[in-house]
Design a protein that fits this description.
alpha+beta, 1 helix
Amino acid sequence: MTDLSIKLTGIGFRAVKKAQEDNTKKGIPNVCCINGKIVYQLPNRTIT
């Protein structure tokens, strides 16, 4: 990876992490894909 790619990946990672934290504070579940399955992380941090 080039230095630019590494920097952009880091920026994207931090932005996603902040958005997930904001969603949790607002009571909105986070949606992601684990092993091809769509899962939800509820505001109390449980995964369904």
